[in-house]
Automatic annotation (TrEMBL):
<keyword id="KW-0812">Transmembrane</keyword>
<dbReference type="InterPro" id="IPR022062">
    <property type="entry name" value="DUF3618"/>
</dbReference>
<keyword id="KW-1133">Transmembrane helix</keyword>
<dbReference type="Pfam" id="PF12277">
    <property type="entry name" value="DUF3618"/>
</dbReference>
<protein>
    <recommendedName>
        <fullName>DUF3618 domain-containing protein</fullName>
    </recommendedName>
</protein>
<feature type="transmembrane region" description="Helical">
    <location>
        <begin position="85"/>
        <end position="102"/>
    </location>
</feature>
<keyword id="KW-0472">Membrane</keyword>
């Protein structure tokens, strides 16, 4: 007679365990903000990783391109890479000069 009682006890424990798993799964599905936040973190991580990989590839490609330039040009490019503000200022000055010349010729 103990066997049916033991079987019933195992069935009750199994049912409790399954019910707990079901409740946990439903709670996870109901936690939409939590799932969205989790997905956002995963996506941000993938984007950061891809951005890093792209930056590494771009640096390698840039270095290769600079290496194929004549030495005087490569030196100037390296100077510009070390001082991007100076390069930007020179480009702005060039644009202003072209604009002024084009306005004068009208």
């Amino acid at each position: 007679m103990t066997e049916p009682k033991d079987q019933l006890q195992r069935d009750v424990e199994r049912t409790r365990r399954e019910l707990g798993e079901t409740v946990e799964a439903l709670a996870h599905k109901a936690d939409v903000p939590g799932r969205v936040k989790e997905q956002a973190h995963e996506t941000a991580g993938r984007v950061r990783e891809q951005a890093h990989e792209t930056a590494v590839r771009m640096t390698a490609a840039t270095d290769q391109a600079i290496g194929s330039l004549p030495e005087p040009v490569a030196e100037q490019v390296e100077k510009a890479r070390r001082h991007p503000g100076a390069l930007a200022a020179a480009l702005v000055a060039l644009i202003v000069a072209i604009w002024a010349i084009s306005r004068r010729n009208r």
